[in-house]
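step 3/5: co-fold with inosinic acid
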Amino acid sequence: MANVTIIGAQWGDEGKGKVVDWLASRADIVVRFQGGHNAGHTLVVGNQTYKLSLLPSGLVRGKLGIIGNGVVIDPQALLAEIDRVRAQGLTVTPETLRVAENAILILPLHGALDRAREVARGERKIGTTGRGIGPAYEDKVARRAIRVCDLAEPQVLSDKLDELLLHHNTLLAGLGAETFDKQALLDQLLEWAPKILPYAEPVWERLDEARRAGKRILFEGAQAVMLDVDHGTYPFVTSSNTVAATAASGSGMAPATVGFVLGIAKAYCTRVGSGPFPTELHDDIGRKLGERGQEFGTVTGRPRRCGWFDAAMVRQACKVGGIQGLVMTKIDILDGFPEIKIGTGYRINGRAYSYLPAGQMAQAAAEPIYETLPGWSGTTRGARSWGELPAEAIKYVRRIEELVEAPVTLLSTGPDRDDTILMRDPFEG
Ligand code: IMP
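step 4/5: write tokens
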């Protein structure tokens, strides 16, 4: 049995909840390895709807959840999410949730800096979630971040706060934002400590034991490849690596344990926040996709920008992200369109490209090159086998497989968990 890693293949919000829940129900352990509470997805199990940001999805299915070292953890957000799902009847204890002792903490000053900088950027804002993700990762690589294990060492906390505040209060004051008081932050951290520390451990060791015992591990990515800090549409990206390789470094496991890599992509494309989006539609078709697909952010409630499927971009995401099979979601949203376009490449300043080059000006100038396919008059909604799909819908999926150079492993045809066509079991490798 292989392990499975699931990552987004576009700009996030690909409709991961349902698929992750299905995969989680078949795994023994679910691991988050990057990002923080900027992520968000909805899991519907029985008559309960769970909105998760930071907790690994497997908890909903009674599986062991692990938050790896690559995640940035806002203690307040984590504790609030635990309380929320507990109130819905879930059991979250140190037996069911483990947190890497070397994971980085997000403090209130990170959110404050994130938001103050966005205001200062004005028109050129990134459109972050404002949750302090970027500033927390900055502190990590600058070697001044507070980690989960520091909560057990008050003197270390105190010393680190001196360094952190020297840096952050200078910046915040320069941006005209309120500064932070050391004692208040220290008190806050010491209040969180006994609530967070029971979950903390070297998770790499538990994961190594699990691997040797032949347990199935699901690595649950957040955000998506085009938001990767190296491979995405920089600087309009998140501050972590979202590619499958991060599942190893973000949890403390060997690269080979990442297993089969599933990339999740909508049958069209959406994006929240700023940044290039070559196939974006500003017309009625774009509006229709947004309305039908209910394209509003889970975390921020912002309306998502919508456009045609960009096969050149997803192909690129498959290559750099290590994606071996695609999960295509929301194909039913395309039902009834007379024709459907697929972006196959870009024209930039008169030159054709089969990929999105890295330059910011080039990305902003990229015009999609389209291939037009006939739509379908029947419905894909709720289809549970290829035979139930209109012929044109099958052609659409097959054409995408050719263009992105990856097979569609799973096709999701509606919100119901069983509205799914499975081509291959990812846990079989
Ligand atoms: P940050 O991760 O809050 O710094 O935001 C950076 C960019 O990533 C912004 O464009 C956000 O909208 C985007 N982003 C962050 N998390 C998600 C997500 O879970 N889904 C979609 N976009 C996201």
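step 5/5: annotate
The chain has a mean pLDDT of 95.
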